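Handout, page 2. Input:
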Amino acid sequence: YSAGNDCYLAKLRIDGTLVWGTYFGGSGTYDGVEDYRIASNGDIYLRGYTDSQDLPVTPGAGLTSPGGSWSIYLAGFRGSDGGLKWATYQGEGYNNWFDAKNTLDISSDGLVFISGINVRGYFPLTANAPDKVNECSSSYYNCYCLNTLFPGQFY
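Output:
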């Protein structure tokens, strides 16, 4: 816990006793969780939004700095002890926290997939991306992107 509102993640036994718990966030005023998934091996993946400029991103992350005053983040945690596996920023926020309507899923082979709307074009693209031009105008929420990552690197 560093400042403002950090998110938390906890694992409880069926009787409600705590196995482990952890905070995740930076020094900004708001670090929230919008979605999570649990992989077949028990690891946990979070997708959320932040105004923190100093999230604990990991070496080799897809994006190591936020794209604006609000950004989306992705983070993976070990299910065994809650330790951070990797974390990365993902795109630029717009107004409040929008690279909006993002989704998160995990394939059977352990790849993490995200999709969503990207408004301003600050999004990590790969060399083989089928569409490299963000054709957004100043209107909200009219461009969609798909990306995959693991472990915190964009492919």
